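Exercise (ungraded).
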Amino acid sequence: MKILVTGGAGYIGSHATLALLDAGHEVVVLDNFSNSSPESLKRVGELAGREAVLVEGDVGDREALTQLFDDQEQISAVMHFAAFKAVGESTEKPLAYYNNNVGGSIALLEVMEEFEVRDLVFSSSCTVYGEPETVPIKEDHRVGAVSSPYGRTKFLVEMMLKDLCLSDPRWNAAILRYFNPVGAHASGRLGENPLGTPENLIPFICQVLAGKLEKLFVFGDDYPTSDGTCIRDYLHVMDLADAHLKALEKLSERPGAFFVNLGTGRGSTVLEVVKAFEVVTGKKVPREFANKRPGDVVEAWADPSLAKELLGWSTTRDLKEMISDAWRWQSENPRGYDT
Ligand code: WQD
């Protein structure tokens, strides 16, 4: 099939694009490079032995989208990754997040409708659950009590897709709620390439160990957990990419809108991640405890049973492999994609 991948030059998008090419699909990538580099797609082409078609443009630009659908006949489905994703930044620039993440999705959906392309895989996030009332988190856990504009944009697009599929049975949407994607393709050629100082734990520790940052600040040491630090469900980005292929297959059964948690079903504390880094790299992670980060939930990990039942998918890579692949990417690409 020919698949449009918005944000396909980004961290998750580039790994999903590689998985699609490896599975024999044709891929068209739309990306505005606001938080990504064309270099990632060059490397995807090297790894896959064939290229995705690249269209530089903005997912909110209806003219560019119409031109793309016009030029690229027979697009069968869309994987929609293009979005701003920094929780902290979203509180400083809420309008930019609503415009890009929600407005961009509306523009995409309207142009898809115009070209009668009605199958979508949507990149959502466990952040829509807010502070979970119960863990592990199942898909029927209440949603919407979200603590950031970023999370609210994800929740709003989820509701839009649900309403759209209810209004017109020709629409099908796989709404994938990622827990914490980490790691990199084992080749060391693709990886997470955050602009500026990383917000997220794994890339931050990688940069500390690479000597680019002085030390890790552990946000909070007295949470009600085994070691006082927050618990998250980290999953390997290649496992995540595989789930997208499975979700795409599921759309062909015309399921309407469905929601799936993507996680390992296992939680790790911040200190457990730090210790795993020290085992994998043989290096000490300099760190000190700091204040809790506003908006952080104490613990969040997935009940992955629906993904198994609905998609026949579960994770295959453990935390050590995630960290080993993340560290290889960091070590072999100290300047990310800046060659
Ligand atoms: C993990 C844990 C921090 C950095 C966010 C978004 C989510 C998704 C993934 C986009 C927390 C602690 C972190 C540091 C620390 N993003 N930490 N020191 O917040 O679970 O999820 O990123 O899709 O939607 O909400 O991930 O990696 O930022 O934090 O102690 O320097 O590590 O407090 O407990 P998070 P994270």
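Further reading is listed at the end of the chapter. For now, observe: The chain has a mean pLDDT of 97. The first strand starts at residue 2 and ends at 6.
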